[in-house]
Amino acid sequence: MQKNGDANKKESPPNVTPVRPVQRAQQEQSEKPLDPEQLILNSPQLADQIKSTVNDLKIRQEDRSWAADLVNDFRENLLKFLRSSTDQPIFQSADFLNTGSYFEKVKISSPNEFDMMLTLQVSTRLNLTPLDDGLFYRIDLTRPTRTPIQAFLMEDELTLSSSRILGEMYRLVRKFLKTYKVPNDCYHWEVNKKKPYSPAVTLSLCKPENGSDELISVDVVPALEVQSWPNAVRGGPNVENWLGKKARQEIRSLPCYFVPKRRKLARNLSEEAKSDAKESWRISFSHIEKRFMAAHGNKKTCCESKSTKCCRKQCLMLLKLLIERLKHCFPKELDALCSYHGKTAFFHTLSARYSDSQWAKKDLPICFIHLVDAFEDHAHRGVLPHFFVPQCNLFSPDAFPRKALTFLVDVLKEQKKEGLPLLKPPAPAPAPPLKPETVSAETFAELAAENSFSPSWFPSVDSSFITKIIPVLMLVFLAVLFHVALKGNQDRH
Ligand SMILES: [Zn+2]
């Protein structure tokens, strides 16, 4: 670990002057925007910046693998516990979604945050009543039941309580942790305090001698599996040109999921609306989103060999990184912005620019600018339909204030004009991986296949977390130094 670690803590990335984007944009209105090809042609530095950011991200990808083994073990044992638990038979049907690539990166910046969805089967028929344009629902049984789900019904004996399922998930995870031993006994898992609008049970892996500092964070999200899709999403996502008719049919034959998430509401609403919001479920398609990422090509040959490599995943990573850093620099102005906006714009871009040749690896800079332009255009028009629930506009004034949208458009313009300064890593070079020696071959292959990146140097990482982790990193660095010195010695003999 370089000693510059703490230099990265609170500052914005270098070379970023938080300009007043509004004024700039007004000056620029007379200038005609360049198309991505011209822009890249005119600015080789911009192309270099994009390429070097992707390379840095790639180098960082092994950072989180030391964590993967511990998270794997936790996951497998929790599942065993739930399946054999007689307390709540509904949790005996539990399974983790998408075995094989269950690690969904929450943040590009934070290598040790993991997300896992725990699916639950309901054998009874359900009524799904939308509470908005199709994202949030009230879930009712069609008739009273004596099956295990009974324990999670409201007083009407029909409405499924999201808060009770989440509460029970918390209780079971706590119970599990009482007997579970982390393979490396220097660590232990702790359950975090419940957050009101979060559908997850959040856990931290801590090292006691470190003053209970968090090293890994895991979100376990319970999700009800429902076979028939509600009306609002019945058409299925618009992927025909991009992935083909057959893929669309296959997607439509998959179940959809509902996670126990409370809906945020305006104040002056009826008691009924308030109660529905409190017990609401949000529809989730993250299993299909993962599938999109895995089989992302217009042709099956995409990314099969070196000659057919595309840059789609890299473009999404870069956009997510840009969003994280924008939020870091302008937390108040861009409070409404989240990485899902970027992911949604990305999927729309993929279905519009569907040909594999439009995403050739060598064209990464141009492709990324195309994506940023598309994102900017959504913001400019105030229209970003949810990819699966097209009636739901993620950029509607209720969801995303106009002022924030204008601000977003302006900063995106500014970023392109200035050569994407926010993508520049803080100098000097990134730190070495945390614990490369703990990476099993299997985990490494899995991680490499996932092609996920994680710059540990990203400045928006929670600064208190960095302050806490620095002593650990220093120790690891010293251990690595010692190891290298020892090895050098042996080699000489
Ligand atoms: Zn590809």
UniProtKB/TrEMBL annotation:
Which sequence ranges are marked TM in the entry?
465-486
| Mab-21-like HhH/H2TH-like domain location | 311-412
Query: Is Membrane a UniProt keyword of this protein?
Result: yes
Please verify whether the record's keywords include Amino-acid biosynthesis: no
Biased composition (Basic and acidic residues) is annotated at 1-12
Per its record, what are the GO molecular function terms? 2',3'-cyclic GMP-AMP synthase activity; chromatin binding; double-stranded DNA binding
Q: What is this protein called?
A: Cyclic GMP-AMP synthase-like
Question: What organism does this protein naturally occur in?
Answer: Salarias fasciatus
Lineage runs: Eukaryota, Metazoa, Chordata, Craniata, Vertebrata
